[in-house]
Amino acid sequence: MLHTLIRSFISTFHSQLRSLTTSTSPTSLNVHCLNATRSVLRVNGDDCLHFLQGLITNDTRQLMASVLSPKGKLLHDVFLYQEPGLELPSTNRVLMEVDSEGKKDMLDILTRYKLRRQIVIEDVCDTFLVWAKTKSELLTMGVAEREPSSTPSLPTVRSRVSVQGGVTGGWSVDPRLPELGWRGVFKVGDVEVGDPSSSDPQGIAAYRRTRYHHGVAEGMQEMISGNSLPLEFNLDVLNGVSNSLPLEFNLDVLNGISYTKGCYVGQERISFSHFRGIIRRRCIPFRISQPSLLNADLPILIEPGSMVRLLGPSEEQVAGTVLAVEGNVGLALLKLSHVKQVADQHEGRLLVSATDGIMGPDACELQPFRPHWWLPEWGQEETGSAK
After folding, report:
1. Is residue 378 part of a domain?
2. pLDDT tens across 207-224, in order?
3. Where's the CAF17 C-terminal domain (predicted)?
4. Long-range pairs for 5-12 at CB < 8 Å and ≥24 separation?
5. 248 assigned to some structural domain
6. Do residue 285 and residue 262 come from a single domain?
7. CB of 93 closer than 8 Å to CB of 73
8. Average pLDDT, the chain
9. How far apart are the C-alpha atoms of 313 and 318, rounded to whole Å?
10. Distance between CA atoms of residues 115 and 98, nearest Å
11. Residues 269, 283 within the same domain
């Protein structure tokens, strides 16, 4: 039975990836090299898909997944690719995109779990680079269109542009959300993408804002992996490993987790959390509403790790932690009960300060909002209104 499943995975690996690409090439594209934050590893061997199938949270036929600790805690987010430039497609050679800061740890994990399998794991960062491609319209952070939401907790923000299909030349539609454009791995010097140094830093910053606007975290710094958790993050930490679950970063709805693929490292905890149906905190996008901090001449002092507080009618409570900020848009890991208290009951405000957590004159208000892809029941799990 197991061998039948493995053969099924291998036989459909290419067709699943090819189905994400078309020959239609969109206009007004922005191409960004992500080599500053993302690195590429190669997993090579006859048993490599079987090996990865037992390690990552998603089916190997998909592109995006995560790697967990045995207790189900988030360690790394990864993307899988076929290696470009081969005369014949090979299921025995897979490229894995990982966060650059976690590359060494990911190499150690792969080496530890391969046991006696005839698999070669290589760092190929000098050969391959990760690129992202977006339409110009997707990088325009204008006034968002608001639509009614079936859940009153947060206002809905829906993208005005939807990307349909992919393009040839190694590009695939971003497996998390089509609004994020395309993603691909190319050899250094490939004419399809050009010189990495030609990437506009402002364009990369705009790409991050777009990602934050849609509520999508990426990499160890934003997803606060348990391996290198900064001490300033206000999260429970035990022996250097955080209590963050991939579900708190919404990876199940962002196509990063499969509940039908079978066993993998950390699967028991994820299945328990999923079927129990209660996630008390989630990665939520926000806007900064303090007018003085939106002045282009003034730097925004909020940094990742800043503590978010709920300033209520009678008391002040810790609501969560800022994960990332770009301009006036960012991501925070927030307790949904506190967000509901502000959004539904209009009791209190979510404030963050850069002055040692003290709500001084530099404190500003965060306005979280619900991305269009969020499930209606999120945030309602403990109110009895979830279905």
Report:
1. no
2. 999 999 999 999 998 997
3. 280-374
4. 5/262, 6/49, 6/50, 6/53, 9/49, 9/50, 9/53, 9/59, 9/60, 9/61, 10/49, 10/91, 12/61
5. yes
6. no
7. no
8. 76
9. 14
10. 21
11. no
